[in-house]
Amino acid sequence: MSSVIDGLILATVSAIVLAPIYLRLVREMSDAFAAVVRAAQAGQPQPQLNAGDLLSVDDQLAITSVTLALQMIYLVTFLRWKAATPGQLVCGLKVVPLDVGLSHSPLPWPVILLRSAIWVLPGALGVLVVFKLIDALFPLWHPKRQTLHDLAAHTQVVFLR
Question: How far apart are alpha carbons 38 and 89 in whole angstroms?
Answer without folding.
Answer: 52
